[in-house]
Each structure stands twice: as structure tokens, then as C-alpha cells.
Amino acid sequence: MIRIAIPNKGRLHEPTLALFKDAGLPVFGGGNESRQLISKTTDSEIMFIFARAADIPLYVEEGTADIGITGLDLVTERKADVDCLIDMKYGSSRLVLAVPESSEIQKPEELSGKRVATEFPEITKQYFEFKKIKNVEIVQVSGACEMTPHIGVAEAIVDITSSGTTMMINKLRPMDIVFDSKVYLIANKKSLKTQEKIRDVETALESVLLAKTKRYIMMNVPADVLHDVHKILPGINGPTVMEVQSSTDEKLYAVHAVVDADSIFTVIRKLKILGARGILVLPVERLIP
After folding, report:
1. Is the CB of residue 97 less than 8 Å from the CB of residue 176?
2. Which of 8, 17, 157, 215 is the most core-located residue (most Cβ within 10 A)?
3. Which domains are seen in the chain, by residue range?
4. Does residue 236 register a pLDDT over 70?
């Protein structure tokens, strides 16, 4: 049995459920309002464990879960000895050093001898050590970090932010980026060596993530511009080309290729200029190189 720990709520919960569904491993139950602790899926050898994102690094390190999805900031904060397998490409965030907008403090160095409140004391400690800023008192809090400078608990905070809206609402001014965090699929080191099915899960998730960056494009191309179209559409191993059995005297080829989603707008314009017609662009569900 492969046990996969996933966040039971919060900003990572829904994207994680959606990703596993796209990968062919839908999670049965476990919505944001659910108190469900475990769930099965279509594969009888895989079980999901719903846990706090902050607890997942230790669950995976200790072997309670074989693999899990959580933020790199939490892995670092917990000093979890795990293998980081895949950048999940969603849920990125930053730990930011911030002070009240009214504060006279302008640089991190000015926090020497002062207090900094945070839910991430280990990362904060590492930050000030790296900056060689001494005599900073780190005040650990378990929530509502943004209010601590306003009630006299600390002169600054280190807190997580995605868009910066919460900082602005609470009249806080970011001074420096402490840690850039991404969401990762992590694995227990022993399980990774002994449970071959972990690699199957990794491949399934990677195929979905890769597919989101690609588009499948099909078109009819006149024979005299086929070479030029080939230059625009290299595809993964080059485009697939098939002769069209046309009722006219014009010789046409059907061309199929996988292209980067970010370039599709420019690619279509170039293809139209060359004379490609009947262009069809489709999403890619999974792509296994």
C-alpha cells in the first residue's frame, strides 16, 4: 500500500485534488469541509491521508506516509530529511520580512536588538545568520502574525505571502524576501528505494504537469510550403506528416505536432501566413516523453 499525504485544507487542497484526478487517481471525498482522515482511489494499492500541510514533511520523513505534497518552506522549517521529487508548478509563495508602514526601520540590519515575530523560526534564524545580523529576538507565533507589530509583540514579522494583499490590508511594508517557496512532491527515502509504485505516481503527475504546458495542433498544409512549416513546428521529435487524399489537384499534407502553449499565438500567425488551413488546436491531457 502506497500512502500519499495531501493537505486537508487551505490553498493547496483543491489544486492537489484536481491534479490527482487528472492523473487518473481521483480522491474519493475529503473536501475542504470534510473531517475525513483517509481516502481510497481507483487503485486498490494507493491510499490518501489528509493532513495539515505543516505536518506532511514529518509524516513523510517518519514513514507514516510514503509520499506527500507540501511546501518547500515547511520542509525546510521542519528540517525534514526527505527526497524532493517534483516541483508541482502551483502554490508558489514567499516568506517576506515586513514592518509596519509607519516604522522608521528601512533595512534588515536595523533589526539588530529588536524582535521579529514568525511562524517560521528556523527559516528566520537561518536568514539573519546568512545576513550576519546579530541579536535579533525571534518570537514564535502560531497565527495572526500580521497583527503582532501593531500590538507591541514585535517590531517586524516574517510571514508567508502569495499576492501581497494581506500585507497591504494590514498596513505592512515588505523589506526583503526571506525564502522563495514552491510546492513539491516529497518522498520517504526508504520507501523510494523499496516501493516501485512511487515512481508510477511520480510519472502520472509529471505527465499531467507537462501536458499543461503543451498544445496539440493539426492542420492541412500545401506541399510547396511543407518544408517551411516543418521549421516552425519541430514538435517533440518533429511533426507527423501524412498525405491528404484530396478531391482536388492540389497536393496537401496533414501535419500534427505538439507545441509549447506559450508560443501557440505566434505559431498560428506564422502558419497562416505560410498558407496552412483548417488549423485545430487541442489541449493535451497527459504527456509522457
Report:
1. yes
2. 157
3. 2-91+182-210 (3.40.190.10), 93-181 (3.40.190.10), 214-283 (3.30.70.120)
4. no
